[in-house]
From TrEMBL:
<dbReference type="InterPro" id="IPR002464">
    <property type="entry name" value="DNA/RNA_helicase_DEAH_CS"/>
</dbReference>
<dbReference type="InterPro" id="IPR001650">
    <property type="entry name" value="Helicase_C-like"/>
</dbReference>
<dbReference type="GO" id="GO:0006397">
    <property type="term" value="P:mRNA processing"/>
</dbReference>
<dbReference type="GO" id="GO:0003723">
    <property type="term" value="F:RNA binding"/>
</dbReference>
<dbReference type="GO" id="GO:0005681">
    <property type="term" value="C:spliceosomal complex"/>
</dbReference>
<keyword id="KW-0347">Helicase</keyword>
<keyword id="KW-0378">Hydrolase</keyword>
<feature type="domain" description="Helicase ATP-binding">
    <location>
        <begin position="75"/>
        <end position="241"/>
    </location>
</feature>
<dbReference type="InterPro" id="IPR042035">
    <property type="entry name" value="DEAH_win-hel_dom"/>
</dbReference>
<dbReference type="GO" id="GO:0003724">
    <property type="term" value="F:RNA helicase activity"/>
</dbReference>
<keyword id="KW-0067">ATP-binding</keyword>
<feature type="domain" description="Helicase C-terminal">
    <location>
        <begin position="266"/>
        <end position="444"/>
    </location>
</feature>
<dbReference type="InterPro" id="IPR014001">
    <property type="entry name" value="Helicase_ATP-bd"/>
</dbReference>
<protein>
    <recommendedName>
        <fullName>RNA helicase</fullName>
        <ecNumber>3.6.4.13</ecNumber>
    </recommendedName>
</protein>
<dbReference type="GO" id="GO:0008380">
    <property type="term" value="P:RNA splicing"/>
</dbReference>
<keyword id="KW-0507">mRNA processing</keyword>
<keyword id="KW-0547">Nucleotide-binding</keyword>
Length: 486
């Protein structure tokens, strides 16, 4: 009897397990159907149409970004403070995600027709980021999300999020001195310290006093936190961890005598020896070097025979037409033998904001062209000079966006530690100030000596430009708006 009871008991528990399993399956099935039905019922508040399936695929990817965990904290700081500083390492997702959160905030806290502006230092960055964000928000580029660069305004009256170069935002300030069309202004890549960025920071600091409801976000991957916080009256700081994937860094054992030849040889060696698929990003200083390197790489690979994978060299520099700049987003060439790779040979235009999918290997010679002005002979020139540690970190970060990567620095570790300065020298301290003086005059700011620059140029240097005859003659032709900020 006892054995029968045991057998019956075992049999019954097995039946219960089977019933529970079937119930769980049914529950998951109905939950799945419920989720799908919910998705179908959910509509995009910007367009009124249901979200497509691609939106949910991108949403799951976005939720894995390091910045996503800080959404509530960032929105809380925007609520409580007028100016917020944010440091997000390369690969954190700040450039694409935070402006989208600003759109959500502005729709519930500001009057209709208010916009979010996000500045970028490069034209190609503004275009590519706008396209990516429009895809993530399930809207069309040029409608709800747009961009504005020199000679191209891809926006509409319905645009609520606008990516634009810092120079274009300065132009808007001429006709709209208080930038009243915007509820939130995001200054991205502030560490680059371009002329336009420095003027904008001083301008926004002044506008913030007259528009207490305006919100300002200062974002960068490598920010001198203390300096920026002090400049913006001890604004709160959010630090977001970065890089999605680890990047292995290699240094040259000895200084290279010819960095261009060394860079070309490095590309060939990576293409031949590295077994992991992935594209290559090579940083050079200017158009002439880039064109020469592209020809040399293609020529060398063609001599290696049919057993080596195909390679496609794509140049990238600021004077390249926009349609040719978009070639960097093309997939790598297909190759029957070996690994086909795309090689992007770029100036420092690819250093910030620009995400080129598939980049796994970065080659950094450690040089870039910088604008320098000699006031004695009144000549402005572009000189090849060493990059800063901040720029070197940015370049290395390009390799870790889609998978674990490698960065080959064509200089010694000692050079990096002891020879490079921490941050890039501000452009305003090494440039011809004629354009700055005219720009500020055009904005209605007459007291240039006391204008609140983060790094003010030398007083004698500024007075020299103010007293120059050509500046005085030019000011006569400029239509000055009301001097509300004199």
């Amino acid at each position: 009897m006892s054995r029968k009871r045991l057998d019956i008991g075992f049999h019954r528990s097995d039946q219960r397990a089977e019933v529970n399993y079937n119930n769980n399956n049914r529950r998951e099935f109905y939950q799945d159907r419920h989720t799908k039905r919910q998705r179908q019922e959910m509509s995009n508040p910007l367009t009124g149409r249901p979200y497509n399936t691609h939106y949910y695929d991108l949403l799951s990817t976005r939720m894995k970004l390091p910045v996503f965990e800080y959404k509530e904290k960032v929105l809380d700081l925007i609520n409580k403070h007028q100016i917020v500083c944010l440091v997000g390492e390369t690969g954190s997702g700040k450039t694409t995600q935070i402006p989208q959160w600003c759109v959500t905030w502005i729709r519930s806290n500001c009057p209709p027709r208010m916009k979010v502006a996000c500045t970028q230092p490069r034209r190609v960055a503004a275009m590519s980021v706008a396209a990516r964000v429009a895809e993530e928000m399930d809207v069309e580029v040029g409608k709800e999300v747009g961009y504005n660069i020199r000679f191209e305004d891809c926006t509409s009256p319905n645009t609520i999020l606008k990516y634009l170069t810092d120079g274009m935002l300065l132009r808007e300030a001429v006709s709209d001195p208080l930038l009243e069309a915007y509820g939130i202004i995001v200054l991205d890549e502030a560490h680059e310290r371009t002329l336009a960025t420095d003027i904008l920071m001083g301008l926004l600091k002044e506008i913030a006093k007259q528009r207490p409801q305006l919100k300002i976000l200062i974002m960068s991957a490598t920010l001198d936190c203390g300096k920026f916080q002090e400049y913006f009256n001890n604004a709160p700081l959010v630090t977001i961890p970065g890089r999605l994937f680890p990047v292995e860094i290699f240094y040259s054992p000895e200084p290279e005598s010819n960095y261009l030849d060394s860079a070309i040889n490095s590309v060939i060696q990576i293409h031949m020896c590295e077994e992991t698929s992935g594209d290559i990003l090579l940083f050079l200083t200017g158009q002439e070097e880039i064109d020469e390197a592209c020809k040399a790489i293609q020529s060398e690979v063609s001599k290696l025979g049919p057993n080596i994978g195909k390679i496609n060299c794509i140049p990238l520099y600021s004077t390249l037409p926009p349609n040719l700049q978009q070639r960097i987003f093309e997939p790598p060439p297909e190759s029957k033998k070996g690994i086909g790779r795309k090689v992007v040979v770029s100036t420092n235009i690819a250093e910030t904001s620009l995400t080129i999918d598939g980049i796994v290997y970065v080659i950094d010679p450690g040089f870039s062209k910088q604008k320098l002005y000699n006031p004695r002979i009144r000549v402005e020139s572009l000189l090849v000079s060493e990059i800063s540690k901040a720029s070197a970190k940015q370049r290395a970060g390009r390799a870790g966006r889609t998978k674990p990567g490698k960065c080959f620095r064509l200089y010694t570790e000692n050079t990096y530690i002891n020879g490079m300065q921490e941050n890039t020298y501000p452009e305003i301290l090494r440039s011809n100030l004629s354009s700055v003086v005219l720009q500020l005059k055009k904005l209605g700011i007459d007291d240039l000596v006391h204008f609140d620059f983060m790094d003010p140029p030398g007083l004698l240097f500024l007075v020299y430009f103010l007293s120059a005859g050509n500046i005085d003659a030019s000011i006569g032709d400029v239509e000055l708006p009301g001097s509300h900020r004199r």
